[in-house]
Amino acid sequence: MEAAGARNRDARSRAEKSPPERKVYMDYNATTPLEPEVIEAMTEAMREAWGNPSSSYPAGRKAKEIINTARENLAKVIGGQPQDVIFTSGGTESNNLVIQSVVKHFHKVHAANGDTGGHPNPVDGALPHIITCTVEHDSIRLPLEHLREERVAEVTFVPVSKVNGQVEAEDILAAVRPATCLVTIMLANNETGVIMPVPEISRRVRALNQQRVAGGLPGVLVHTDAAQALGKQRVDVRDLGVDFLTIVGHKFYGPRIGALYVRGLGEHTPLYPMLFGGGQERNFRPGTENTPMIAGLGKAAELVAENGEAYEAHMRGVRDYLEERLAAEFGERIHLNSQFPGAERLPNTCNFSIRGPQLQGRAVLAQCRTLLASVGAACHSDLGDRPSPVLLSCGVPVDVARNAIRLSVGRSSTRAEVDLVVQDLKQAVARLEGQA
Amino acid sequence: MAAAGAGRLRRAASAVLLRAPRLPARELSAPARLYHKKVVDHYENPRNVGSLDKTSKNVGTGLVGAPACGDVMKLQIQVDEKGKIVDARFKTFGCGSAIASSSLATEWVKGKTVEEALTIKNTDIAKELCLPPVKLHCSMLAEDAIKAALADYKLKQEPKTGEAEKK
Fold first, then answer.
1. For this structure, is B130 an active site residue?
2. Which of B8, B13, B134 sits opposite A419 (nearest CB)?
3. Assigned domain for B30 exists
4. Basic and acidic residues: which segments have biased composition (chain A) (predicted)?
5. Residue B1, in any domain of the structure
6. Active site residue B95
7. Which residues of A carry out catalysis?
8. Complex ipTM above 0.85?
9. N- or C-end of chain A: fewer Cβ atoms within 10 A?
C-alpha cells in the first residue's frame, strides 16, 4: 500500500512536471551558428597554421596557402576573381570602406581639377553625391548620415515602394545628379526579406555612365550589401553587374569576419584604404591576417557553392509551411508583412503581425517559451516598442508594424519545429489576451 | 510478483488517466500528452506495411523526408490499366504520428484513381487521426509521400522515359 502510494505520487509529479522547454531558434537572419566543417577548418588553422602569413618559412607559407584557398572559394561562390576579393573584419567594415573610398576618389579626381588647362569641370565645387534607399542596414545608413552631417558628401535616401517593398530602378536613376559617384542598394532586406532589383539598377547605371564619362562627369559606381542574400540564393557578381559587393560570414554559417568584392580591384575600380600598415591584402586592408577566421570563411563559402541550391530549397519549403500553418492557425488576424505582390524575397524570411491591441511583437516573443526570434534587425533591439522604420517605409500601418515578428529559418529548421513554434505562438497570444 | 507489479502499474496508470479530464483547463502549461487511440491503433495494427516491386511500370514509389529530420516515408502504389490504385504499401521511419499518417494514406489511396488520390490533403489526415498541433507536419509529409508516388507513376507512363529506376 505504501509502495503503491509512493508510485501514485511519482506518477502525479511526473505528470505535473513539464519536460525542460525545448528551444527553437528561428532568427537565422540575425546570425547563424558555425557549420561543423567550418569549426574544423578554423581549429585546424589555429593549431597548424599559426605562423605569420607574410613569413617566408614553411609555417608562414602554410598560413598563406590557407588564405589563398579561402579567397578562391569566396571568389567562386560569388562568380568573381580571387584577386578582386579582400578580407575585412565584417560587413560594417566593408560597407564603410566602400563609402569612404568613393568619397576620397571623388575629391582626388574632381576637386583637384580646378586649374588644369582651364577646361570646365562640371562638378567643380560640388560635394560627392551618393544614392541609397530607406531600408538599408545601419552600417550603410549611418556612415552616409554622418558624411552628410559633416558636409563631406550629399546623400539621397530613395524611398522604397509601398506596393512591393522594393526600391524602383526608375527612382534611383531619377535621383542621379552630375556629382553622383555611388549607388548603394542592399541585395536583400534583413527584416522583410525583399530582394532589390540590383541587376536592373546596375544595367541602367552602366548605360548612363557611357554618356556621363563622355561629358566629363564621374562614372557612377554600384555597390550592393549582399549580407543576407549569400547562402540563401544564388549571388553572382556577373549577373548583378555591381562594382562592389559586401560579404558577411556570420549570415551563412561562417565566422564573424567578412570580405569585400571589388570588380577589377586596382585596375578598373579604385579602392582607397581606411587603414595603413604592413602591406597585407595588397595594401587595401593591411593587418596581419586572421588566418583561422579566414579559413572558416572560405570553408563556409565552399559549402554554399556545393549545397546552395539544396539549402535554398529546404529553407523555402520550411518557410512556406510556416506561413501555411500561421494562416491556418490565426486566419484573418495574421498580416504577412514580407509578402509583397510582385517582389521576390529571401526563401527563409517570414515577417508577420498578429493583429490585436496587446500583441506587440516584443510582448508576444517575451511570452513564447520555445521560440527564439526577433522583431526586426538584431541591432535595433533597443528600439523599445517603436515599430520598425523599415516596415513603416514599406507602407505597413503603424499598429500592424508594432506587432511585427520576424522569423527566419535556417538549414536545420524542420517542419516539426514549425509546428512547435506555431503552437508556442498560439499559447503566447492566448496568455496575453487572457490577461486583458 | 508480476501480478502485484502489474497491479501497481495499473493504479499508477489510472492515476495518470484520472488527470485526463483536467487536461483542457491546463492546456496553457505543458502536461503529459497521450497518443490518440487512432494513432495507437495504426501503430499496433499497421496496415499495408511492406514493399511493391519498384521496377514495375505500374508501381509508383514516393520517398520523402530525411533521416536527419527524423522522418522518412516510403509509399508505393500499384495502379491498374484503368488508372485505379489497386494496392499500396508503406514503410516509415519516424514517430507514432508519422507511422499512422502514412499507414492511413495507404488505406485512403486504395480504390481511388490517380486523379482522386491527388486530392488527399494533409488536413484531412490530421483531422482523421486527431493529430495534436505539434504533429501536423507528419500529415504534411504523408501528403508529400502520396504526391511523390503519384508523380513517379506518371513519369513512368511517359513514352520516352520507360526506365523504371527513377529517384
1. no
2. B134
3. no
4. 7-25
5. no
6. no
7. 379
8. no
9. N
